[in-house]
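FAQ

Q: What does a record look like?
A: Structure on top, sequence underneath. For example:
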């Protein structure tokens, strides 16, 4: 029963996001996290909370949410997207120490082996229906949001 209720809540959140009702979508995402923490949508709902604050230009709350997300899901590819958001926020706020910290975390996120390719990809459609694409290179990570370069993290 809980899984289907979480699915319905997720559908409501995505519908609200598609209609541009971000506040309602945020409330639904928050409900998923609070009431259905073991659901398959919980990870994406938690990510959406950080994204919501970023879209609202509330960079401190976005930073807090993405830090919590990274701490909770440190080995998921989505955590690398959260780190790229934290890197971008640090750039916007001109915080050189944080820029360095997030660059180092991104560089050491996972050892990647490039045997036949010089890059690898990871795609993620957020609850707010924004297309995220990570492109891993040997010496940098690029994050594209809706096909536009959002953050370039050289290391």
């Amino acid at each position: 029963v809980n899984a289907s209720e979480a699915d319905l809540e997720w559908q409501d959140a995505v519908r609200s996001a598609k209609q541009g009702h971000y506040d309602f979508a945020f409330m639904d995402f928050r409900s998923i996290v609070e009431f259905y923490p073991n659901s398959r949508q919980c990870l994406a709902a938690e990510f959406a909370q950080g994204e919501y604050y970023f879209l609202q230009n509330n960079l401190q709350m976005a930073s807090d949410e993405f830090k919590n997300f990274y701490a909770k899901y440190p080995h998921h590819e989505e955590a690398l997207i959260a780190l790229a958001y934290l890197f971008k926020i640090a750039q916007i706020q001109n915080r050189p120490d944080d820029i360095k910290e997030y660059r180092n975390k991104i560089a050491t996120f996972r050892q990647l082996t490039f045997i036949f390719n010089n890059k690898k990809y990871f795609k993620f459609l957020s609850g707010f229906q924004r297309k995220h694409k990570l492109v891993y290179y040997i010496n940098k990570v690029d994050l594209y949001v809706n096909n536009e370069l959002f953050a370039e993290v050289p290391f």
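Q: Is there anything notable about this one?
A: The longest helix spans residues 2-18.
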